[in-house]
Amino acid sequence: MNISPRRSAAAPSGRPRGIPGANAVHHVAYTVPDLDQAVRFFTEALGAELLYVQGPVEDPTGDWMTRKLGVAADARAHVAMLRLGAVTNLELFEYAAPDQRRQIPRNSDWGGHHLAIHVEDVDLAAAYLRSWPGVHVLGEPETITDGPIAGDRWVYFLTPWGMQMELINLPVGIPYEQQVRARLYRPDQPWNNEGPVAHNG
Length: 201
Hints:
The chain is of the alpha+beta class and 201 residues long. The protein is 13% helix and 25% strand. It has helices at 35-45, 64-69, 122-130, and strands at 28-31, 49-57, 76-84, 88-96, 115-118, 136-137, 142-143, 153-158, 164-169. The mean pLDDT is 89.
């Protein structure tokens, strides 16, 4: 595998860089085919905490859904907000819409995406996820040996509904840290104290 660094894009000349007053990424959000299934998987398999569920979000007689969310006027949604660890809020949507596309994008497609979870032991975490019905781990974990993130151990997996995710362990002291002052956020402890329990049923 060849991973080559690319030059980062610069901000337009003379313009301020960044959103005024921005201080954090508040949440990431994904649309799922079955909200109950997704909430169960994130809470039971991944250890997330469910904060709230709301809905339906809809406007049966107007165009609020189009104006505000960019979806069909008669679309409706149910929403759940979860907490994953110390810094990540995860919002899940289940939509019903007349023009809904139901293909999950591949990583190579526009809109392709994945959510990565930092773990202490990628191999142990991958073995744990293989015990969950419907989870597909994409091959065996591997370690990157060249480039700015040499030492990174990782593997991708698919949730039971096909959402792409990653297990990653990015150790302190990897090569990019010799070139820049900024550091990627790296958690220093597990987000729950219970530890994973294999699920075979």
